[in-house]
Amino acid sequence: MGNKMNRKIVILGIDGLEYNLVREWNLKYITQKAYTKTNLSDFEVIVTPPIWASMITGERIPEIEEPFIKRHRFIAHKGKSSKVKVPWYVRLGSKILPLGIRRKIGEAIIKRVTGDPFLATHDYLLRTRKYKTIFDYFDKTWTNGIPSYGRNVSTPKVKTAMAEAVKGNLKPLVEYAMKTYEQDRRALFEALDKDYELIFWYTPFLDEISHFYIRKKLKLMNIYFDLNKLVKKVSEKLDETDVLYIISDHGMEPISEDPRGGDHSDHGFFSSNTGELIKKPQDLFKLVVSKSPRSNFNYP
Fold first, then answer.
1. Residue 260 and residue 132: Cα distance in Å, rounded?
2. How far is CA 93 from CA 87, 100, 226, 237, in A?
3. Which of 113, 211, 200, 82 is nearest to 148 (CA)?
4. 218 contact partners, CB below 8 Å, separation of at least 6
5. Mind listing the pLDDT tens digit for each residue in 32-79?
6. Alpha carbon distance 32, 263 (integer Å)
7. Which residues of 232-259 are buried (b: 16+ CB within 10 A; e: fewer)?
8. H-run or E-run covering 219
């Protein structure tokens, strides 16, 4: 693998990248030398911020996870993305009240109980400095923002576009998501041209679209093929000693009762150009830090 001092580590964080679709479509640049599902069973709620926080700190962060657990107590959830026990009156309401009324009541309760957990936690690791992150072990680092480390994935603009998409108008959401992807992609290639030791790139666009496209597999396949080409271009910019990891927090699966069409699956994705694999998202921390010239960590 070469000297620790002479290689670049690049992490492509793709929110919502689904292992089963990557495998079905045989996306060889994304699968790299080795790939696997990651196990999310440690998490009570499979939601973006806590999982990404675990990747860059190596541990579950209760201050980030707890607001989402409280939020999910007031969501009558279908699917695999939550193990939170829902109160009986929420379960009852989900059976007798129309979706629109349930959503308004739920939003009012959540706002009073937790506030907006996405807004409250989006910069927690930066703001508090309570936990060490992978960025503390390298001198020259770059990220375009990771949930819990400076990136809010649930802005008013996203919420408005999502609400329109639930009504059947997907255009604002798709336009917003693809514009985000273009901006993130441009930032990535600018970073690759500079002398960074560690690059952690993140993009939320696939998660946003996949909630609604998971049943429109031809449209989703085109996006996955584009991501495969992106990885190819990234690989071509790296030296043979450089490290490339690709990771997602979770995937996406169709849920018949979900008004969007789909929700988070109970596993994530990981691949490497080195043949290394991890079992859980929080294992990424030790794997990356083990390559720092300033650490004594070994992996596994």
1. 37
2. 10, 12, 42, 54
3. 200
4. none
5. 999 999 999 999 888 999 999 999 999 999 999 988 887 665 555 555
6. 26
7. eebeeebeeebbbbbbbbbbbbebeebe
8. helix 217-236
User: Quick one: DSSP state of residue 137?
Assistant: G
Residue 125 dihedral angles phi and psi, to the nearest 5°: -70, -35
Asked if residues 227 and 14 have their Cβ atoms less than 8 Å apart, the reply is yes
In the numeric block, the tokens 């960074």 are attached to 196
Cα 23-29-30 angle, rounded to 5 deg: 50
Q: What distance in Å separates the CA atoms of residue 170 and residue 166, rounded to the nearest whole number?
A: 8
Give me the half-sphere count of Cα atoms (radius 13 Å) on the Cβ side of residue 126. Answer: 13
Backbone angles phi, psi at 203, to 5 degrees: -145, 135
Report the DSSP beta bridge partners of residue 263: 253
Tell me phi and psi for residue 105, to 5 degrees: -65, -45
CA atoms of 85 and 157, how far apart (whole Å):
30
Do the beta carbons of residue 273 and residue 298 sit within 8 Å? no
Supply the pLDDT for residue 281.
98
Both tokens assigned to 142: 């770059």
Residue type, 11: I
Tokens of 264: 């988070």
In this structure, what token pair is assigned to residue 211?
Answer: 């909630």
Structure pTM? 0.88
Report in angstroms the alpha-carbon separations of 172 from 70, 103, 217: 30, 21, 20
The CA–CA distances, whole Å, from 251 to 39, 79, 150 equal: 11, 13, 22
